[in-house]
Amino acid sequence: MRLSRFFLPTLKETPTEAQIVSHRLMLRAGMIRQHAAGIYNWLPLGTRVLQNIIQIVREEQNAAGAQEIIMPTIQSGDLWKESGRYDDYGPEMLRIKDRHERDMLYGPTHEEVVTDIFRNSIKSYRDLPKNLYQINWKFRDEVRPRFGLMRGREFLMKDAYSFDLDYERSRHAYNQMFVAYLRTFARLGLKAIPMKADSGPIGGDLSHEFIVLADTGESAVFTHKALLEMPAPQNVDYEKDLQPIIDQWTSLYAATDDKHDPAMADKLGADLVSARGIEVGHIFHFGKKYSEPMKASVIGSDGNPVTVFMGSYGIGVSRLVAAIIEASHDEHGIVWPDAVAPFDVGLINLKVGDAACDEACKKIYDALSLEKRDVLYDDRDERAGVKFADMDLIGLPWQIVVGPKGVAKGIVELKRRATGAKEEISFEGAVAKLTVM
Ligand code: 5CA
């Protein structure tokens, strides 16, 4: 992609309305623009990051055995009257009347809709287990939308819903999602720590939040420092008993502020890390909370109806974009982890119009494209300082700087954004280095 053609409205000034660094950087890097309070447009750079995150979330959900569906964003209020949540949910729910004066709403979550899908089509214990998920927009009319995408009114969520025959199997579905989350966040370049949580308006007896540590996090958190070093599970067989993995992750102390036991500070001493955290995922086991009132049952092996056990599993996909920036930036801008970067490489031509520089850039661009590397080519007629600053701001993992002096010797400068480390290297060497990864 040529930067001269790419829609990338970067800002030099720091937007005054943005209080936290991820919000500031997303506006400055031309990723998003606010449409209304807590509602955002995603511009091309932001959209590319969001799509990369979606893809990783999707791959890990599929690997764990969940199946992707798409449910409507506008829902019928009738289902919520059945579950009893229509009145309970309160002013966070955006209520709409259609032309026939029917109660509709913009979905803040989808337990009712998915339970309706289930009860209409799944009739036998032989059809279980099922885990259905979507990646879709939600609306919650937050009193104080703030911090950009961190607490928006409209936001993108991955929401999965499991259906099982009994408690034990339902716990296995919960464990599958637990493990899938550990893997998902690790692939996104994040360290997310599971912490026991309250289930709030979703309900249920068992719930964990996945918390990323960052100075600007909304809540205070406490964790045993060994959890920060624990690697995500590899080569997982999701059919096997996953409880040992869960035990390993939950046996060490980790708590959000409301659950924190101050006595643990003395007990753990230097092993306790106190920090601030961002909730990027939340999983719930709530048994029959929805299946009972909504009559979601299957015929069991003995011919009798069995009300199914359910759980729901959310990931804040749009919030993750902000959380990744909070966890990975410096004074010059964003530092994207390789896995989610909007482009792999920024190619900077320091002398556009110079035949040798243009030629070298074309050669490098074509060679990297052939190897399926996404390149953003800064072919603008701009000062070098502007190009360097913009490239650092948007945080692509690698930069290749092409200038007339180097080109004369067949050399470019290769820079790793995260460390700032630079090396002089041949065109072919640079291409080779970026394609073996
Ligand atoms: N139905 C369940 C799980 S599918 C549910 O709605 N869970 S939730 O309320 O905890 O939301 C799931 C995740 O969405 C949260 O962990 C958080 O990362 C994200 N989220 C929640 N509210 C917002 C918001 N206002 N802005 C951005 N992300 C949000």
What's the short story on this structure?
With 437 residues, the protein is an alpha+beta fold.
* Overall helicity: 25-40%
Strand content: 25-35%
CATH C-level label of the largest domain: Alpha Beta
CATH topology of the largest domain: BirA Bifunctional Protein, domain 2
CATH architecture field of the largest domain: 2-Layer Sandwich
Helix count from the secondary structure assignment? 14
Roughly how many Å apart are the termini? 21 Å
Distinct bound molecules: 5'-O-(N-(L-cysteinyl)-sulfamoyl)adenosine
In CATH, the homologous superfamily of the largest domain goes by the name Bira Bifunctional Protein, Domain 2
**What value does the average pLDDT take?**
96
Structural class: alpha+beta
Q: Would you give an account of this structure?
A:
By secondary structure, the chain is an alpha+beta fold. The chain has two domains: 314 residues, BirA Bifunctional Protein, domain 2, CATH 3.30.930.10; 92 residues, Anticodon-binding domain (Rossmann fold, 3-Layer(aba) Sandwich). It contains 14 helices and 23 strands. The longest helix has 21 residues.
